[in-house]
Amino acid sequence: MGKISNQELIQKISSRFADRVFAFSEPTGLLTFETSKEEIIEVLTFLKNDLDFNFLTDITGIHYPEQELPIGVIYHLHSFRQNVRVRIKVFLEEQQPTIPTAFNLWRGADWMERETYDFFGVQFEGHPDLRRILNMDDMVAFPMRKEFPLEDPNRVDKKDFFFGR
Amino acid sequence: MSDIKLAEAPPGIEGSGFFATSFDKVVGLARANSLWPLPFATSCCGIEFMATMGAHYDLARFGSERPSFSPRQADMLLVMGTIAKKMAPVLRQVYIQMAEPRWVIAVGACATSGGIFDSYSVLQGIDEVIPVDVYVPGCPPRPEAILSGVLRLQDLVRNEPMRRRNSDEYKELLNKYGIQ
Amino acid sequence: MNEPAIIKNLDRKETTTLNLGPTHPSTHGVFQNVLEMDGERIVSGVSTIGYIHRAFEKIAEHRPFYQITPLTDRMNYCSSPINNMGWHMTVEKMLGIQTPKRVDYMRVIIMELARISDHLVCNGILGVDTGAYSGFLYLMEKREHIYEIYEEICGARLTTNIGRVGGFERDFNDIAFAKIKKFVKDYVPVLKEFEDLFTRSRIFMDRTIGVAAVDAQTALDYSWTGPILRACGVDYDVRANEPYSSYEDFDFDIPVGTTGDVYDRYMVRNEEMYQSIRIIEQALDKIEKEPKGVFHADVPDIYLPPKEEVYNNMEALIYHFKIVMGEVDSPKTEVYHCVEGGNGELGFYLVNDGGRTPYRLHFRRPSFINYQMYAHMSSGMLLSDAIINLSSLNVIAGELDA
Fold it and tell me: What sequence ranges are listed for the domain NADH:ubiquinone oxidoreductase 30kDa subunit (chain A) (predicted)?
């Protein structure tokens, strides 16, 4: 696969950031670690400029209601030259989660962050145009959070007894 | 003799040099055989509609040669694909912009009932916002099914009484949707 | 004091606001761009999307793994088999299933057919938007033939739901193989004819060369992938960089452009169709050498047994029950798997908590990420150029909005 092994990456990242990056793991071979929202931009900059992770594959979110810090923001980076990927997670508080934007590193972060805001309500500080992107502007809830119901609660045409509920 | 098939004349009284029939039937005949479609294609069913308009299935055979992309010159609104709640006002606006007489075909499961997308963001059938004349099932329906839907609509159009659009029932129907 | 109103306005710049979409015929789908126009030229634009947002990711959290395949169909509906296969391979990667080579090659055939059907629609529509309808009609005829192959294999034309986790639901029959062979033979002359109509056509060249040129650095900065990134000169293709489904066994070229304009995107897509035909030919040869009749991995935990065995065989009945009732254990892990879709890297990020449904499933949708530069790159462009730029980006509304 890649020209650089995950072990080398772990070593390089942890020698730079020491205990500010943690929880290293490799689910299905993809290096994953966590950091905090104070460090994230520095970590991303280091990965982009020094370790050659030039490509931002994806930004998305996740919600674990039972955790102390329930809202997660997940970055997937990809180094084209080394042909290796890395996944970074940052966990945030449920009320008013904020994290600095990656827009200044990659312009492509623009809509990915808007989508994450739309679904999970994560405020990306410094984002030039943080509005809802897929859902309607007048929506107040964040639909991908676990407590939000899948089906429209206002439906009148669906009789529960037809569905055995 | 060419092999072009002409539409059959409605029943009437025929003599030398004249043919008499009811006005309703003539108008119905003319309308039914030149329905101008307005393709309101949002997703997958729109791709099947592309195939329907293409050379293989050729919707033009049934008098729908000209897809009208302006609602003002269209007779038949074909709603193809999922209509999200964000899109519903747009669809309604397009319907209001169409001139009477206007007909609507809901093509595919999503337009008919929301289909497999029973979620907070999808309108569960376009008949929540506009009246629908023909429903075509399928996810997506095959081009033959779309053609069949158009033919069913032609039947409706052919037999529609002239006064239907002025009747109280029709006004009540539109009022139900809040359309004047 | 008495000067006419018209002179007063001379020093003021007048721009008009043009609302392009969401039902505009030239937008090929439902997206809206509010453009500020100075005559024919676009000054700035704002994109609005989400008009067919169907909450795929939310629905996926409530569906067992095998019921998510129909959702992926409806994402990029021009090449739904690629999405299906991508999803199956994601689940297989999570469960650690190794598929037999024959299954891999069968998948490659289907995926390359899907890539052809995606690219031909895009290039055909590009032709329509530059004012030539005939090329589109030639190619659409061939697309019907691809759909006939799909029908032979899975029974559906567009939203195929093809294959299962672990392989295919049934083997390709002889008619399917015959149709694939016929298609491979027939398609190249049609594509050549299509190229003759466009590639050196003065009108087409004048309309497309130099339009919406993007340099490689900007494209990477915006996370572009797929043919439009390769048109900028970056040779990134998931099929080569991280081979899945035994793509490493095949010999094919990855075409790259130089300028990243609409013409280069057209050329890259055309060349990719030739390469796809090459891959299918090789796959047909390779399948001959594999043992016949193998069309799924031997994973009774995951792959539904055939119905006649369910009725006659205790073991098969138990497996059937376990799979349908979601009693099968799955590992607690997370997977990112990507395939080269019609428009670029189609990624599946799956977080599993061991249940029968994903805890979280995120689709990295290339159309969504590729489209975000559109409003930005449109400024300064002529409106008619912006339209062909849009058709060459090949934004599929279903994939854009998820």
Answer: 34-153
Name the residue type at position C15.
T
Q: Inspect the interface and report whether the beta carbons of A56 and C364 lie closer than 8 Å.
A: no
Residues A26-35 have a mean pLDDT of 92
Question: Looking at the whole model, is its pTM more than 0.90?
Answer: yes
Euclidean distance between CA atoms B159 and C48, whole angstroms: 42
Flag whether B76 is marked binding.
no
Q: Which amino acid is at B103?
A: W
Is there a domain that residue B100 lies in? yes
How far apart CA A122 and CA A130 sit, in angstroms, is 10
Residues 37-96 (B) with a CB less than 8 A from some CB of A: 85-86
- Chains A and B form CB pairs within 8 A to the count of 20
pLDDT along chain C (402 residues), means of 10: 51 79 70 88 90 90 90 89 94 92 94 93 90 85 91 90 89 93 94 92 91 92 93 93 92 93 94 94 93 90 90 92 86 93 92 90 93 90 90 89 83
Residue-range definition of the domain harbouring residue B119? 36-176
In CATH terms, A6-99 corresponds, of 3.40.50.360, 3.30.460.80, 3.30.950.10, 3.50.50.60, to 3.30.460.80
SS3 call for B35: coil
Residue C83: both structure tokens together: 């999405």
CATH number for position B41: 3.40.50.12280
**Chain A residue with minimal CA distance to C397?**
A134
Spans of all domains in chain A = 6-99
User: What percent of chain A has pLDDT above 70?
Assistant: 93
Is residue B18 domain-resident? Answer: no
Query: At residue B82, does pLDDT exceed 50?
Result: yes
Given a cut of 80, whether residue A2 has pLDDT beyond it is no
Contacting residues of A for B86, CB less than 8 Å apart: 135-136
| pLDDT of C9 | 52
* Number of domains, chain B: 1
Per-residue confidence band for A158, with pLDDT thresholds at 50, 70 and 90: low
Residues 17 to 36 of C: which have CB under 8 A from any B CB? 22-25, 29-30
A54-57 long-range contacts (CB < 8 A, ≥24 apart) are A54/A78, A54/A79, A54/A80, A54/A81, A54/C220, A55/A79, A55/A80, A55/C220, A55/C223, A56/A102, A56/A105, A56/A106, A56/A108, A56/A109, A56/A112, A56/C223, A57/A85, A57/C223, A57/C338, A57/C345, A57/C347, A57/C364
ipTM of the complex: 0.92
Residue B141 is assigned to a ligand binding site: no
Report all structural domains of chain C as residue ranges with CATH numbers, in order of start. Answer: 67-358 (1.10.645.10)
> Helix or strand or coil: residue A62?
strand
Per-residue pLDDT, C141 = 86
Determine contact, residues B157/B31, Cβ cutoff 8 Å.
Answer: yes
- Cβ of A150 within 8 Å of Cβ of B120? The answer is yes
pLDDT at res. C401: 86
Alpha carbons within 13 A on the beta-carbon side of B98? 25
Query: Annotation-wise, does B139 bind a ligand?
Result: yes
Q: What is the pLDDT of residue C273?
A: 94
Adjacent-strand bridge partners of C302: none
